[in-house]
TrEMBL record:
Keyword Secreted belongs to the record: no
Protein name: 2-C-methyl-D-erythritol 2,4-cyclodiphosphate synthase
Reactions accelerated catalytically: 4-CDP-2-C-methyl-D-erythritol 2-phosphate = 2-C-methyl-D-erythritol 2,4-cyclic diphosphate + CMP
Biological pathway: Isoprenoid biosynthesis; isopentenyl diphosphate biosynthesis via DXP pathway; isopentenyl diphosphate from 1-deoxy-D-xylulose 5-phosphate: step 4/6
Binding site for 4-CDP-2-C-methyl-D-erythritol 2-phosphate: 9-11, 35-36, 57-59, 62-66, 133-136, 140, 143
One of the record's GO molecular function terms: nucleotidyltransferase activity
Length: 158
């Protein structure tokens, strides 16, 4: 059966952390806070895939109380999510996603992010959509206090 899932995540921007989005480390004075590398894009994608597969969300698989995954790369989380699909016999088809970030500019890094995510999920880069938008200066995202991401995933489910 064909199944879709959605994912959403948001993280706070703070000083003293690297900014990692789609596995790319940005040259930016602030980074996202989290137990992992806080790659909000990968987290939204992970939840979209898990949702499509009928699995519990990322926090169940990777609890923020687990010291063994402190600082884990979210590309590694995507690899492990893909492994769950493989175990169940599901086939990942496509991902689409949107980053909501007032800054920095995502455009110049889109291809590298796509390749990272596609590589982690075992998909052709053309099957991974990434778009970016500002929040038009509205609210906490518009003030640049955080970055959010949303994603959808399509899978062929056993
Ligand atoms: N962090 C961002 C935000 C946006 N972009 C690109 O700019 C275009 C215009 O954004 P608006 O929010 O003004 O619609 C958008 O379509 C993206 O291509 C970006 O690269 N990085
Ligand atoms: C992967 C985890 C692990 O702690 O990452 P965090 O950086 O805590 O990010 P969040 O999106 O708040 O929740 C997902 C967590 O499971």
């Amino acid at each position: 059966m064909f199944a879709t899932g959605i994912g959403y995540d948001v993280h706070c921007l703070v000083e003293g952390r690297p900014l990692v989005l789609g596995g790319v480390t940005f040259d930016y004075p602030l980074g996202l806070e989290g137990h992992s590398d806080a790659d909000v894009l990968c987290h939204a994608i992970a939840d979209a895939i898990l949702g499509a597969a009928g699995e519990p969300d990322i926090g169940h698989l990777f609890p923020n109380t687990d010291e063994s995954i402190r600082g884990i790369s979210s590309l590694e989380i995507l690899r492990r999510v893909r492994a769950v699909l493989d175990e169940r016999g599901h086939v990942l088809n496509t991902i689409d996603s949107t980053l909501i970030a007032e800054a920095p500019k995502i455009g110049p890094h889109l291809m590298a992010m796509k390749e990272n995510i596609a590589g982690a999920l075992g998909l052709p880069p053309g099957h991974v959509g990434i778009k970016a938008t500002t929040n038009e200066k509205l609210g906490f995202l518009g003030r640049g206090e955080g970055i959010a991401a949303m994603a959808v995933a399509a899978i062929e489910r056993q």
